[in-house]
Design goal:
Blueprint (H helix, E strand, L loop, with lengths): L1 E7 L5 H11 L10 E10 L2 E10 L2 E9 L2 H25 L9 E8 L1 H6 L5 E9 L1 E2 L1 H11 L3 E6 L5 E6 L5 E4 L5
Helix pairs in contact: 1-2, 2-4
Length: 181
């Protein structure tokens, strides 16, 4: 497991880093393949915040927790991630593997807001390329929950069409799928 630690507004602590790495060993049983974890330790006045982002083959998840003690925050966030990964793994058991193609490559651009209103050519701030992986709607909702995103673009594993699943204001989920004429 590749673990990267970042300390914000505090001194680096080898003991805290070793404690987090030791606790992260518990999540290995839920994920196959190489695992990359980023751990962020932050102190804001009296709050100690730990945020962990885990990336592995097919799984991305993140969680954060704030307490009065950094070690307690590490324990709480590891428990939270373990629950997420356990739920994810159990849901995967119920799904039969579909068409595991390579997916579609998408380009995402972020434009400067003022440039859209004032000039005919909007100013591009950043461009990012992502892959819309083939998955079922249930898997897309699960992945969106794990990443704490409001929407996710994916390729439907059955039809091969590009779809979007999103979180509605009422807490439910919506699906945008193309209609065939």
């Amino acid at each position: 497991m590749n673990v990267t630690t970042t300390f914000r507004h505090m001194e680096q602590s080898e003991a805290l880093k070793a404690y987090a790495e030791e606790k992260l060993e518990r999540v290995k049983k839920y994920i196959d393949g190489p695992i990359s974890a980023q751990v962020f330790f932050t102190v804001e006045k009296i709050r100690h915040i730990v945020e962990i982002v885990i990336s592995a083959k097919g799984v991305n998840t993140k969680a954060s927790e704030a307490t009065n003690d950094m070690y307690a925050a590490v324990d709480a966030v590891i428990d939270k991630i373990e629950r997420q990964l356990k739920r994810y793994k159990e849901k995967l058991k119920g799904h039969k593997p579909g068409n595991e193609g390579s997916g579609r490559t998408l380009s995402k651009q972020i434009f400067q807001g003022e440039s859209i209103e004032t000039s005919p050519e909007p100013v591009v701030i950043t461009t990012k390329t992502e892959v819309a992986k083939p998955m079922s709607v249930d898997e897309a909702v699960m992945q969106m929950d794990l990443l704490h995103k409001d929407f996710l673009v994916f390729t439907d594993a059955i039809s091969g069409e590009l779809n979007v699943v999103y979180r509605r204001k009422d807490g439910n989920f919506g699906l945008i799928a193309p209609q065939r004429a």
